[in-house]
Structures are given as structure tokens and as C-alpha cells.
Amino acid sequence: MREELNQGLIDFLQASPTPFHATSSIAQALQGAGFKALNESESWHTEPGGRYYVTRNDSSIIAFQLGHKSLAEHGLRLVGAHTDSPCLRVKPQPELQRQGFWQLGVEVYGGALLAPWFDRDLSLAGRVTFSRDGRIESRLIDFKLPIAVIPSLAIHLNREANQGWAINPQTELPPILAQIASEESPDFRALLADQLSREHGLLADVVLDFELSFYDTQAAAVIGLHGDFIAGARLDNLLSCFAGLQALLRAAPEESCVLVCTDHEEVGSASMCGADGPFLEQVLRRLLPEEEAFQRCINRSLLISADNAHGVHPNYSDKHDGNHGPKLNAGPVIKINNNQRYATSSETAGFFRHLCLESEVSVQSFVTRSDMGCGSTIGPITASQLGVRTVDIGLPTFGMHSIRELAGSQDLAQLVKVLSAFYSSPTLP
Q1: Cα distance between residue 238 and residue 52, in whole Å
Q2: Under a CB-based contact definition with an 8 Å cutoff, are residues 312 and 320 in contact?
Q3: Which GO CC terms are listed, alphabetically (predicted)?
Q4: Is 401 annotated among the ligand-binding residues?
């Protein structure tokens, strides 16, 4: 099972270079398992025993199965994650022509670790909006091939590079696409129109706009002398999306379960399709339109917010509290912060710890050093939006927000095992 899940994750990462593609990948897996697509603009007809999913903005997805028990009486088992990762996004008018090179202007999305983006083979993917025969349409595109690079400046020209290097994202990050003659005028929209033709076999009249991200073409892989690690891009947080999806597909049919994977977590989640927006509440209210039943259901529900945790790095162990340094391949991590950067309480932590014990899954704890700031995730946001009890957990990783992150190869199977137990649990605290 472990090897199968790890290969499934690698394939999922390869197919999901952007939140749009991740959402499409999840939707395809759900369709293959018999989940029915719902459209927010249409009436819904759901029934006990049914399995459904709905997307918003092509970059967020909520999937749910309805058991035969009353939602108001038995609540929901929810798992939340996010589809976005820090990256370089192409600007609206990106064409740059300097020293005979065609480059694209980019904007840093989220808190990206910038140095690893240099000297990587980059490709480009995302969503393109265009007009065709008088209609406005959108399609996902993925160049797949390495079409760009951001070369480092040689150390001979930057002797202080190894003493600390403040990267200027405006001047140092535009990737190089090609060499061009001085009389040429690069047209990025024409390039996109050509890609639409090659990938989808359609001719766009005008490319109107786009949301495109560069990504590293090196595939994720199991690495290490003994295959101890998984290295790859976007482990934060597609690793959790994939684990939640696998658990939902294994869920006992008697229970009502929800998987919510939302966009824009890396920039605060405040959007129409982010965790700080109305998406989840609006979906749940369509299932429970009567106010008292909705409130009773939420009160009986529990959310596991799954987002990667910081593993204790052997070269930087002083960055962790001495008693709270999660180790790779030692199981999922309960994340705790008394200033509510995480939404975990003793009750929800105790329940998750009990689930792990019952499932024979190792469990760890993480608390940030008291002299360091603490990051956050969708857990506190969703808890404050819905009033749902929440535990923040995640798998330990290295290099979070790098272009290539590292996780333990044994941990994914453990997370899927405990999330599957959660979805099938007949009782909640």
C-alpha cells in the first residue's frame, strides 16, 4: 500500500502544476469513483447514499458523501487542505526584451523561497481565457516541456553571493524563454493561442487574459539511500489534498464525509474560493437549508485541517523547541499554538491522538519556539467561519515553500490510514 500511495502522489503532483490542474485531477479521480458533479448555478438534488462534488473558480473543490444518518444528529467529518503553493506568476503584460533575450515579467505568489528557483528547468501552466466564435471560454494549458530558465549570476560577478544574497524579484526573477533577433517583437498571447491549438485543437480569436504559473519540470521521486524520502514540488499542500482524497475514496458509506480543498491559502485565503470566503458554508447550507438543523450539524461536526508541518532539520535543529521537533517518517503531527494560529484544542487533539492510537499510527506534536513567530493555515479560518471544532495536523517536511520540498516516504500511508479511520468513525467527541 505504501509504494502504491507514494507512486499515486508522484503522479498526482506531475498532473497538478497549478491549483487549476490539481482541482481537475481531484475531480477526475472522484468521477472515476462514482461521484457526481454538481453545478452551483443549478438546483441540487442530493440523497442519502449519494456522492457528489462541486468546484469553484476551477481552483477549489468540495467533495462529499451523504450517509444514511441524520446530519443534524450525527454531524459531518470534514478534512480540509489547500490547492495552491508559492510560485512565480506571469504578469498581465509580461513581454521583456533585453540583451537579445525574450523574458517574462513575473510576480511572486505567496511566501516563496526564491533562491531554489534559479538554474531550474521551468515550464508554464494555468488557465487561459479567450474568445472564439463570439463566445468567451477558458481552458487549462500546460506546456510540460522546459521552456524557460532563470540563470544565476556567476560568482565571479557576485563575490558576496555566499555571504547572503537579497534577491530582487523585479529585476532578478524574469525567466528567459528564448534568444530573439532585435527586429522581432515577442507576443506572449500569440504563444498562448498556439498552445491552445496544440493542446486542445481549437483556434482562439483573441486571448483575453490568463493566470499562469512557472513550475519545475523535474518530476517528484522517492529518493535516499534506502528510499526514505519523497522529493517534489508542491508537497505543501498537495500532499494533504491527495491524502484526503484517498481517505474519502475509502470512507465507510454509513458516514457523511466532506473533503474541502481551497485555493489562495498562501496569500491569506480571503477570496470567493478561499477558506476565508463563503464557499464551504454555502455548500453546507444547501445540504441543510433549515437554520437550526445547520447549527446542530456544525456543533456535532469536526474538521481535520491538514497542512504540512516543519520537520526538525538536522542542520538547523535549534530552530525548533527541544521537546517539539517532528521527525520525518514518524507519523502525522498535531500542530498547537495558544495564540490561535492553529485551531487545535485539547479536545480535538485528544480525539486525533486517540484515532492514531486506535489505527496504530505514530503521532507527534509541534509547537513553535516561544521566541519565533508562528505560521497559520486554513484551520483557524474555517473554525472562525463555521464555528466547527478543528484540529490542525500535517506531515513533517523540509524545505517548505521551496521549489522542491522533502517529506518522509512512510508518512503518507500513515496519514491516509488515520484520515480513513476518521471518515469511518461512528462517533465524534
Answers
A1: 21
A2: yes
A3: cytoplasm
A4: yes
What's residue 1's pLDDT? 85
For residue 70, how many other CB atoms are within 10 A of its CB? 14
Q: Which residues contact 218 (CB under 8 A, 6 or more apart)?
A: 120, 121, 233, 404
Helix (H, G, I), strand (E, B) or coil at 66: coil
Contact 83, 116 (CB under 8 A): no
82 is in an annotated binding site: yes
Q: Is 324 annotated as a binding residue?
A: no
Domain with 349 in it = 2-85+233-423
Distance of alpha carbon 117 from alpha carbon 114, whole angstroms: 6
The whole-number pLDDT of residue 418 equals 98
Backbone φ and ψ for 194, nearest 5 degrees, come out as: -65, -40
Give the per-residue pLDDT at 225.
Answer: 98
Name 108's bridge partners: 88
E-strand ranges in 99-202 read 101-109, 122-132, 135-142, 176-179
**One domain, residues 266 and 316:** yes
Amino acid identity of residue 129, one-letter, is T
- Asked whether residue 390 is domain-assigned, the answer is yes
Could you tell me if 241 and 384 lie in one domain? Answer: yes
CA dihedral of residues 82, 75, 412, 37 (deg, nearest 10): -60
Same domain, 91 and 72: no
Closest by CA position to 358, among listed 429, 259, 258, 425: 425
pLDDT digits (tens, 9 = 90+) for 13-40: 999 999 999 999 999 999 999 999 999 9
- How far apart CA 136 and CA 129 sit, in angstroms, is 7
pLDDT at site 369: 87
- CA dihedral over 70, 75, 77, 79, signed as positive or negative: positive
pTM over 0.90, yes/no: yes
CA distance linking residue 368 with residue 217, whole number of Å: 33
Q: Are residues 381 and 262 in the same domain?
A: yes
Verify that 248 and 393 share a domain, yes or no: yes
Q: What is the enclosing helix (H) or strand (E) of 242?
A: helix 235-249
Report the distance separating Cα 80 and Cα 274, nearest Å: 11
Half-sphere exposure of 306 (CA within 13 A, CB side): 29
